[in-house]
Specification:
Oligomer: single chain
Radius of gyration: 17 Å
CATH superfamily of the largest domain: Bira Bifunctional Protein, Domain 2
Number of domains: 2
Largest sheet: 7 strands, mixed
Strand order of the largest sheet: 1-2-3-7-6-5-4
CATH topology of the largest domain: BirA Bifunctional Protein, domain 2
Shape: globular
CATH architecture of the largest domain: 2-Layer Sandwich
Number of strands: 12
Distance between the termini: 42 Å
Structural class: alpha+beta
CATH class of the largest domain: Alpha Beta
Length: 245
């Protein structure tokens, strides 16, 4: 299958959401590997409909059009987390921790997030839009969330070239996407577990069947599900909101 070259890049001054724009392109049959990036988003979003603050020039807001194999699709968020961690370290020297299922953290504060949304063209051809946001400047988040968010320049104390960072991200994403597409899943899972080590083996809470559950996050399985040890045994968590205690 080979690596997808993310070279068809559309850069916008402002969009509602890069995932929205990329989704429309995907429905019209744009080739796999199309990239939508923006200086700002007026309606950026994360998982569960949360707002992703996206002021002009303060972050990297990007979405990719992918058409993965059915077996690879559930692992895209896991692979993307590894890829962005790889890219940030390569481009800036900063090491990030991964938090299941879709966040990158530095020093206990959120630096970046990932949002994968599945869809289909009118003819039924499926696709996945993989979006990510990275806080580059402290202005990328509002003062009320400063205690739980951070930025690259805030951590490093120096300017970051967003275009060079984008190129590093796209190169790393292409490599990790090729891994899951071509069956090298173990490599991705091992890399994710290594980067998540500081956030695993900790107690968490989540909702299951409309009631709260509690356990200790242990690892992820071969499909990317979070394995949680409870008093009743090990439980697989495949979606939903997880809170680290």
């Amino acid at each position: 299958m080979g690596s997808v070259p993310f070279s068809n890049i559309q850069w916008h001054a402002e969009v509602t959401s890069t995932n929205d724009v990329a989704g429309r392109l995907a429905e019209r049959g744009v080739p796999e590997g199309a990239v939508v990036a923006a200086d700002a988003q007026s309606a950026g979003r994360g998982r569960h409909g949360r707002v992703w603050v996206s002021p002009p020039g303060a972050g990297l807001y990007v979405s990719l059009v992918l058409r993965p194999r059915a077996e690879a699709a559930p692992l895209l968020t896991i692979a993307a987390g590894v890829a962005l961690s790889d890219a940030i370290q390569a481009a800036t020297g900063l090491s990030c921790a991964l938090k299941w299922p879709n966040d990158l953290y530095v020093g206990g504060r959120k630096l970046a997030g990932i949002l994968a949304e599945a869809g289909a063209a009118p003819d039924g051809t499926p696709h996945v839009v993989l979006g990510f946001g990275i806080n580059v400047l402290p202005a990328a988040f509002s003062p009320d969330i400063a205690a739980r968010a951070t930025s690259l320049e805030g951590e490093l104390g120096r300017a970051i070239d967003r275009h060079a960072l984008l190129r590093a991200c796209l190169d790393a994403l292409a490599a990790r996407y090729a891994d899951v597409q071509e069956g090298r899943v173990g490599t991705v899972l091992d890399a994710w577990r290594a980067r998540a080590a500081t956030l695993l083996r900790r107690p968490i809470e989540w909702q299951q069947g409309g009631r709260p559950r509690r356990g200790v996050a242990e690892t992820i399985d071969g499909s990317g599900a979070l394995l949680v040890r409870t008093e009743q045994g090990v439980v697989r968590v495949i979606s939903g909101e997880v809170r680290w205690i």
